[in-house]
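PROTOCOL LOG
Step 1. Enter all chains and additional molecules of the complex.
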Amino acid sequence: MKLEEVRRILDGEVVSGSKSLDIEVAMACGADLMSDVLAFIKQDALLITGLTNPQVVRTAEMVDVKAICFVRGKRPGQETITMAQKKSIPLLLTHLPMFEACGRLYKNGLPGCSEAE
Amino acid sequence: MKLEEIVHELKMDVRSAGRNLAREVRGGYASDLLSDVMANAEKDYLWVTLQIHQNIVAVAVLKELAGVIIVNGREPEPETLAKAEKEGVPILVTQLPTFEIVGRLHQLGFRGTA
Amino acid sequence: MGKDDGFGRVQELSYELKVGEVMTTTVITVAPDNRVGDLRELFRANKMSGTPVVAGDRLVGIISIEDFIKCLADGEMDCPVRMRMTEKVEVLYADEPVVHAIHKFDRRGFGRFPVLDRKTGHLVGILSKGDIIKGLLKKLEIDYHEEEIHHYRASHIFEDILADKTAIRLKYDVRGKDFENAGASASALKKTLSRLGFHPQVIRRVAIATYEAEMNIVVFTPKGQMLADIHPDHIEVKAVDKGPGIPDIERALVPGFSTAPEWVRELGFGAGMGLSNIQKSSDKMVLKSKVGKGTDLRMTFFLYR
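Step 2. Run joint prediction.
Step 3. Record the structure below.
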């Protein structure tokens, strides 16, 4: 699924990396515990999370996450944005809570990490 | 929809308070941060999380949640189960990750916004 | 890096590259006294749609194929270029970034701009959209080459070193409680391993384990070090600190067991999964710790399993 479609489905906005809206995410993972992201996520995934600190970007970098979407309208600080730009990881923001964001993307055909090849 | 129907539909395992499955579920909340759940989850919502610590029971009781789903095949700690049994909080487990179990709950008609 | 988003790089380049670097420097010009009729052969032979008019070193105007056609329609082919040229010429300067030129092309809709030297005011070249595209592509190719060279050099290092036994040691200092920079060592190590040409799966395992180990140092100790030893067939990463130590190692290894303070949990760490993640990602893990003395964690990753 293209990032632009993710943005549209979640009625979201682009925080940084607006030039990258045509990249593809292969699957999604929703989590707030970074150790679980490290343990379970596969590469080229969209990470959906309620946390906005720079370590979220660092975690994403370690496991080659394609893009990050922050939920509940929580806007990341400048440090997080700067790091994401440096690592070329686009950031989205949606006002939906995690449950609703995951539900809508799943309904639109985006698989989870246990289903995707 | 009642909790027991959801358990059946989504083939989850019940780990505690099997006596309280007749409860009506109104919606869902997914989060691994206790403070977030404390602040934002609603009464009679089903909580989806990776957390297995006994503090989840206290949060579920306080917010009058319908139950807790623990994802990724993770098992709750013994203290968590003992406490949940005592407080009557149903704890369910699934092999699926958060994204997928939430996706299926959404398909059953549950929403995350009030 | 190969994985960088190419579009962003192009945008960066459009600021870095100067008009003077991408313009065409051999410019065909005409003099003000040339006949308009002479332009026909010039335009045709050089496939041009316009050309600067120069008197001496000075740009005095520009004449386009449209000006020529009008002249033709009026039957005035003997008229001098001076009478039919546009005198007010939009120009670019050689020291301007390419992005300025792109905006100017957008706004004006012209096919090309004469380029002047800012100091002397002399005509030094001409710039078309095609020149910009060629310039950017060339630069991107060079960039790409440079990363390839890094990659090549690094990946052949073991073949080039003659010794009975070779190992490369990378050392990273980790500051405790510095949550913001936590993971910087793991990040640097990941990038280095990628340049050295290791398999992505190996890099991923090392990155995850190193990051978790680094996080433990940041959360629980005042400072520590990450030491990565790269051997031809395996990588060993040591995380050492002089922190408080772990009183009950067996318990610490139980998934979900954690002594992390609440602030760490709220940041998405300290859920007691770190050591089990390390165990899962590495081929061998040895954890030694003395209360009050510090902790020594060794992780081994075999390259060929």
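Step 4. Note key features.
Helices of chain B lie at 3-9, 34-40, 55-62, 78-87, 98-107.
The longest helix of chain B spans residues 78-87.
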